[in-house]
Amino acid sequence: MKNNHHDDRLDMGIQCRSGCKLFVVGGAGYIGSHMVKQAHNVGYEVIAIDNLVTGYRDAVLYGKFEYCDILDARRLTQLFTQYKPDAVIHFGGYSIVSESVRDPYKYYYNNVAGSLNLFKVMVDTGCKKLIFSSTAAIFGDPEYLPIDEAHIKKPINPYGKSKLMVEEMLKDFDSAYGLKYISFRYFNAAGHDPEGELSERHDPETHLLPIVIRAANGERGPVNVFGVDYDTFDGTCIRDYIHVNDLVNAHLKGLVYLNNKSNMSTEINLGNNNGFSVKEVIQKIKDIMNKDFEVIDEERRDGDPPALIASNKKAKKELSLSPDYVSLESIIKTLA
Ligand code: UDP
Prior knowledge:
The protein is α/β, with parallel strands linked by helices. It contains 10 helices and 14 strands.
């Protein structure tokens, strides 16, 4: 296959058939824009679809861009009929836990009703391969760590509930209409495009790593630590950080998985099998950047589970994943 952007991964079985069309819904967002770049680099014809509510038009650096809200069935039908994509990757969800607690309607309307709308248009127009962005938040307070796919699902915030509802819908869409899917449960996506073309742009920024990096660069005031009385070794929340490019590569492998007719629809956790507390993350960034800044202990934030660490066994087995960024240091270095 001809490809201008040669990439080692072409040799690892993740290249697509020539002319393979991919819709990246939410392609102007943080993970979506990294997905667009990598999919383009391995030969997909990429069409990014976004309503630009949280995404940025100028983050879509490759392929085509089409403005569309997933709640707009007419526009979606027009786009699916026009392009006839082979597969869809659906990143088009709101994803801030604390916001979902304050404004659940926003989460159920976009994340659940919007996804339902998208899946119906897919089925009606004959597109039956999907990768869905789910989340570790579907598990709630974990009963054991690391969290494997069989762990009980008891989400403790509307964000996690909205994503679990979609996972349930997908099982029924597979049985009834043959929609083949993978639901990937992301743990904490972090880091940037190592070539520096893309970044994480949330407004306002709520995520720990970019906030701490900004504090270290003197671009903002103190870092607040939301909760120091959790039942963890230092009282702060533990999260499993996975580099955005490792996440994106899992999706490329996921597309190959879906192309293999004998593979079943499935759910897979995506993390590094390794957790870091909020205070550990702050200290690591101070050490790596050799900067100091003020840190203030605060009340807990609504909806935060104490610890989320992924088991990566299934991801390794089903997709032969081998992450490029295994240490927190290597992730931080793409940000610093
Ligand atoms: N956090 C914090 N201070 C901040 C931002 C986040 O203490 O300014 C904590 C947050 O409470 C959570 C962890 O860092 O325990 C990761 O939060 P983030 O928003 O990055 O991701 P989430 O786990 O909510 O998806």
